[in-house]
Amino acid sequence: MLRWLRWQGLVGFVVVMALLAGSWVLFADRLVKWAVEGTGTAMVGARVELDSADVALAPLRIEMQGLRVTNPNAPMRNAFEAGRIAFDADTLGLLLDRVDIGEVAVEGLRLNTPRERSGAVGRPPSEGPGLLDRTARSLEIPALELPTAEQALAAAQLRSPGVIEAAREDMRRQRDTLEQRVDELPTEASIADYESRLERIREGGGDLTGRLSQARDAKALLDDVRGDLKAVRKARDAARETVSAAEDNARKAREAPEADIRRLVDKYSDPATVAQELVRYVLGPRVAGWVNGGWYWYQRLAPYLGRLQGGEDEPPAVKVPRSEGRRVIFTEADPRPETLVRRVALSGAGGEGTLGGEITDIAAPASLWPRPLRFDLRGNDLPGLAGLAAQGQLRQAAGQSRADVSLQLSGAALSADAPDAGGIAIEDGIADLEIDGQVGAGTLDLRLDGRFRQVGFALGAEAGERVRQMGELLEGVSSFDLSVRITGTPESPELALRSSLADTLKRMVGQVAGQKVQAFRAALRDRIGERVAEPLAAVDENLEALRGAEQTIADRQSRLKALEDRLGRILG
Prior knowledge:
572 residues, alpha+beta, 3 domains, 13-stranded mixed beta sheet, 47% helix, elongated
C-alpha cells in the first residue's frame, strides 16, 4: 500500500500545513490586535489602542488586554478603558461566515481617563455635522440696553408688510369680482325705465277695457321687477359677505404694525424675554455640546448596529427566481445575523467607586434578530461623577425603528467651557442631569432636566460692554435648574430651553431698560408707520370701494322693492 503514496506530494502538504500553523501561532495575536485597532479607530473617529491579544484555537477563545478608546471630543482623554476583554466564539459559525458569541467579559472598565498623548486622527469631530450645530450658531447675546428704532428695525423681520400686502391683494380681487357683479345687475337706466312704465300704468284706467289693460301691463312689469329683484338680493347677500371678509382683512392689516411693535418692544425691553434670550446664549452652547457629543457616537456606531433609518439594513424583498442547472444554491430558510453577541458583561472601578452593567443582543443586521439591543450601566463614586445610571434599547423590525435612552448623572463635575473671545461661558460647577427620549426614523423627542450648583462663569478676553454687563448680572448666581426639550427631526431639530436662571436675571434686566421703553415704542410706531402707510392706504381705498359697491346694490334693491310694493297695491 505504501507504493501507492506519492511521497513528494505528502511531504509538500505537510510542509504547507506546518507553515500555516506556524504563521498562525506567530501572527494570529498580532493580526487580532491590528484588526481591533484599525476597525475601532474607523468606528470611533479617534485612536483606539490595544496592548495585546491572545488567540487560542481549541476552543476558539480571544483575550485582549489594555483597550483604550479615545474621546474624539477630547483627544487627551479616553472615553473608556478596559483592562481585560475575553470571549469564546463559535468555530462552526466562523466557517459559515458568521460571528456568534455567547458572552463577552469586559473587566477593569474605567471612564474618562487621561491620556499621555493625543488620540486625535484626521478632522476633529467638531468640524463634522452636529445635531444642534445650526441652533448653536444662531445664538446671539441680546442687548441689555434699548437700541434705536432704526437699529431694531434693521435686525428685525417685520411681519406687518406681508400681512398688509396679502390683505391688499385679497381685497383687490374681491373688489374686481364685486364690481363685475354690479355691472351684471339691472342698471340705473333700466330701473328708471321701470319707474316710467309704472307712471304710465297709473295714468291709464278709466273704463273697463282701460282697467284690464292697466292690470295686464302692471302684471308684466311686476314680473320683470321681481326677476331683477331676485338677482339683486342674491348680489346683496354676496356683497355683505365680501365686505365683512374685507373688513376683517383690513382690521388684521391695521393691527399688524402694532403686533410688530409689541414683539420688538418685548424682545428688547421685556425682562422675561430678554432674560430668556440671555439663558439661551449662556446655556445653549453647553446643551448643544452635550447633545452633539451623544449624536456623534450614535452616528459612528449606528452603521455597525443597523441604522435606525426606516429599515435601511433590512434585506430587500425580491422575487426568488426558479433555480436551474446542476449546481443549485437554496435560499436560507431561517436567516440569522452575520454578527451576534448575546451578552456583554461589564465590570470595573474608578477611584473609590464601582462600575458595572451589561449589553445584550448586539446583532447586525438588527432586523434579523427578534430582540432589541439593550444596555444597562450603573456606577457610583466615579472620578468626576457621584452616580451613573444608563438604560436603553435599539429596536429595528419591519420598517419600524426606534432608539430609547434614559440617563441619570448625579454630582457630575462640569468641565470648563472656553468662552469665545467676546463671549461668556460656564467655568465650573456640579450638575445632576436626567436625560430620556426617543430617536426614530425621521422623529426626535429628547428631554433633559438638570440641577446645577456651585456654578461659576468666565468672560472672554475680548468681552464687550454687553457681555461685561451680563457677567455682572451673573456674579451672584451659583445655582439654577434647567429644562430642555428637543423635537422635530434629525434634519431639522427644534430646541426649547427653560431655566430658573431666567427668573433670577429677569429682576436684574428690568432695571436696565429704565424709562426708555415709551420713547422706543413711539419711535418704532413712527418708523413702521412710514413703511406701511402706502399699502395701508390702498387697503382702505379697496375697502371703501367695496362698501360703495355694496351700497350701489342696496340702492338698486331699495328702488326695485319700492316698485314691487307700488305694483302690488295697484294689482290689489
